[in-house]
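User: Hello! My lab partner asked me to get a predicted holo structure for this protein. The small molecule is S-adenosylmethionine, SMILES included with the sequence. Please write out the structure tokens.
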Amino acid sequence: MGKKISWKNKLIFGDCQNMKELEERSVHLVVTSPPYFNAPFDYPGLFESYQKFLELIHNLAKELKRVLDNGRVAAFVVDDTLIDRVKYPVVADITKILTGEGFKYLYQIIWVKPEGYIRISRRSGVLLQHPYPMYYYPDNLQESVLIFQNGEFDYKSIPRGVKTKSRIDIEEFKENKWYLSVWKITNVLPIKNRLEKGIAAFPEEIPYRLIKLFSYRDEVVLDPFMGSGTTLKVAYELGRRCVGYEIDLELSDVIKEKLSFNQPNLFGQKLSDFFEIIVREDTKHLRTKLQASVRKKRTR
Ligand SMILES: C[S@@+](CC[C@H](N)C(=O)[O-])C[C@H]1O[C@@H](n2cnc3c(N)ncnc32)[C@H](O)[C@@H]1O
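Assistant: Hello! Below are the structure tokens for the protein in complex with S-adenosylmethionine.
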């Protein structure tokens, strides 16, 4: 088992390529989605090149290898990205990087979004206007949840009482078909959801399933790309401890609102009493920069 650590939950504003605040093997599960490589709506021009994006994943993978406990898993919600008619093989490259760092590639879950929830464009419409071969552009309804393991898990290391407290509800497992490698889950619509605007947040159901399936009560769940804080919110609600990294300080209020930071509970305690906030010098103010870049793109 990794070290038991007595610390508060943490919101860390800083670059996840260096997670110096976390000790070796102090994390039991990682649930994350990296910024979509230069995605036109959310992150246009964020990375100088695809190579720079891969470097970020590489540096992160090294840090994850260090902080993740033996046998534990890291789940990445990712998809290949299409920019200016070039498709970037993000899923394959992340798999290669993580396995290259010594992780075992366990599963690829396909997250399928409902038809009609297509966010960016209905590209398939081109064929209706040009009903001929070579005019085929499918609408993308899926993302991958890639699951990597850090060595072998010792099932005997978990005390019976902890297992009992972390029992998975079999009815929920069967009813919502968690047992399939295809998960049908509605995505977050940023237009409706003011909080997640421009963040490319995933729906709570994704971390909910992963946290229940791959961590025990009181264990530590990490999201190195916190965004609006979805993973941390769900982890906390499920009785796990949580830590997140986010490079963009401008998301601080969004995260606090999502976590209902200042609302007192029945005992008059606020969530903020249970969290430590660390602001490092390497934070950035990305939102303003990215929004300006989106505006520029749209007025072209
Ligand atoms: C796709 S979003 C994550 C969304 C999150 N899953 C949610 O539900 O809100 C990726 C986030 O990673 C942040 N980010 C980008 N590079 C980073 C880095 N080097 N370290 C920490 N955070 C970073 C971005 O600012 C962005 O908020």
